[in-house]
Amino acid sequence: MIPAGTNPPVATSFFFYLLAATMIIGGVLVITRKNAVHSALALISTLLAQAALYLMLYAPFVAGVQIILYAGGIMVLFLFVIMLISIERAEKERQFNKQWLVGMVAATALGGLFIAVYTTTTKGKMLFPEGRMTYGETQNTQAVAALLFDRNAGQYMFAFEIASLLLLVAIIGAVVMAKKRI
Amino acid sequence: MHAFIEYIQSYLNSDLTPGGAGNIFWATVYILLVFVGLSIAVIAMNWLERKILAHMQVRLGPMRVGPHGLLQPIADAIKLLLKEDIIPAEADAAIFWIAPFMVVLAAFTVFVVVPFGPTHAITDMNIGILFMLGVSSLSVLGIVMAGWASNSHYPLIGALRSSAQMVSYEVAMGLAVLSVILMTSLNPESTGTLSMIGIVQAQFAQGEWFIFKFFPLGLIGFVIFAIAMVAETNRAPFDLPEAESELTAGFHTEYSGFRWSLFFLAEYSAMIAVSSIAVTLWLGGWLHPFPNLLNSPTWELIFSLFPGISFVLLALMCFYNTARMPKHPLFRVQTLGLAGFGVVLGLIGLILFIPAVRMRVTDIFWFATKVAAFMYLYIWYRGTFPRYRFDQLMKVGWKILLPMGLALLILTAVVGMRTELWAELQGALHP
Predict the structure, then answer these.
(1) For range A72-86, the mean pLDDT
(2) How many angstroms separate the CA of residue B197 from the nearest CA in chain A?
(3) Could you give the CA distance from residue A43 to residue A56 in angstroms, rounded to a whole number?
(4) Which end of chain A is more exposed for a tag (fewer CB within 10 A), N or C?
(5) pTM, two decimal places
């Protein structure tokens, strides 16, 4: 619908830094708040900012699914469970972190991986070239569908189905663990 | 200055939505129009709900403030704004403060993509319907926050019920919506669409509203959605989160004054939002009845006269009731007020007959009429059905609507692809 070149681009560095800052602050709040409900709400703001980042990448479909699944679905269930915890007792408990060494190593490794991916060149080309990528925002949903289901171009169907099988196993596992007799 | 006027006028010649044309001025105008229109609709709903409910129960309803209680919503609004705004001492103040805004934000943001006409939407998104479902699912967060932050028993139980209910019914709702999106893909190019405008255009191109498509499949999908949407908006008979007889007022028990009115506003605009989804997906959105048969210029003219006629009829109703007002000096002001209201309605009706206005508002009128029918249904449900028990609610959601939705999705796919499937089968049998 939108003719190319009429709209100013949304993907400016200002929005990126704003959203990235929201995500980082939200993430830090998730692990530092004593009150579990506050943590969950901070996580929601992180997830919403992430959805906005997907929008900046011209992937509205992924952004929409992110909002429906994470912010609207999973986080509601999180809150549902957390609300039943006695907050008074949780507030008095000392916060602890026994795995800070492992966490540090993992975070450093992940950061190193990001830097490596960003700087490596294969056959003289960088993985992330300078400049904006022009993806068809108006055809994003159709493009995702083609990648999944198209007879010729579709190549991610199997991976997609395997992922759903993994989720099914997780659900069955949760039921088996929660119920003594089935 | 000249460039600015040209900028404003350039949009009028395009056949795009303001968002699609990237015109910030008209986008702002449309946002304001939608906001004002919604507020008026909520005020009207407030009055209509009391009146219609009262008449269903053989009562008069509000009669004191203004003629036939017409000014009652305004009196209520003033009362709510002047009321003391209390935050309970033990409440989590920040979340308690933010929750109503969250609910209102979610309820109003969805109207960004609602198509009141082929160009009368603030913007058209590639993910239109997904955006509407996603953002409206955020309102449950606000409700949960409100219930939890109140730090009191009834609101907490209300919030728990609300989250369980909305998560359960979202699934069935999504399946019904999916079946419609499958139907949009049944065109020669065989690409479906999630765009709200695209869905209505697909119904026009396929020559039937999706409620009649693959009878009775479209109808079943519509019924599933129509049930799920009542549950999503926490209205009777699914109003367990705010069940008066059990939980005082549910999740907003501790709220008062302005904050409470925000919840009220959000509830009604959410009702209008889900009704607009139903109208767009199944009832042909802005299309007038029989858009493919009655599309000659004469019929277009007749259908474009409807908005004016309906307002004139409303005005005549006002004049009739003015004549029936008691002839007592005490009622003089009220009688004059009702006559004045009738004159205003009649004038609006006359303005709507002007050709330039007429052609622009026809689409909006047909869309609004269909949504209004749903609003009446909401009131009708409230007047007729007793509230569900919670286990019954869960049973309806998970054991009836969800399997029906799954079967509907598969059947729609099979019926829609029947020629291709048949060809595949023939190929497999006779290689």
Answers:
(1) 80
(2) 11
(3) 20
(4) C
(5) 0.86
